[in-house]
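Journal club side-thread
Mid-discussion, someone asked how the predicted structure for our own chain would compare to the paper's figures. Pasting it here so we can look after the session.
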Amino acid sequence: MKRILPVLLLLLSLLPLRAQDSDALKRRIVEAGKNITGITCDFVQTRQSAMLAEKAVSSGRMVYRSPEYLEWSYLKPSVRQFIFDGAAAEAGKDKMFKDLARLIVSSIAGGSLADEATFRAEVQVSGSDILVTLYPLKRDMKRMFTSIQLRYKSDTLEATRFEMNEASGDVTLIEFKNSQITRR
């Protein structure tokens, strides 16, 4: 019995929240995102693909400034940089990068949770984290992703992890570290 109780409590903590609690957490994350004016952090990106024998790991630095500025700098294994500045994106003609940059910017600021026309969001509390799973509703997004998972610290509502599960079966995981957040 002593072993069953902790396992039962763990399983109960992973159950989806009641709709009322879920909506309240989504609102908290969206409101916290509205107060963010800037984020600077390190990231580690791990890509798992059927086409690759091993996971591809990259790392770098991200700079975000509200409302739509994202500077994504890879430092390892090679140096390259992408800048997304809303409509004036310097990412060239790469529509996929622009869409991805918008998605990351929106997720950091909590906007993806409020976009009920594009995503259905499920919220779970797991220990000291809030796990949000976004399921695409639009056809073009469904072609790219089966789900997108976001992990936030429950006390600060800081995004710590962004995972894209692609329709092809590939997975890209981005973990944010050493975040410096500027708020209004």
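Post-session note: The domain at 25-183 is CATH 2.50.20.10 (outer membrane lipoprotein receptor (LolB), chain A).
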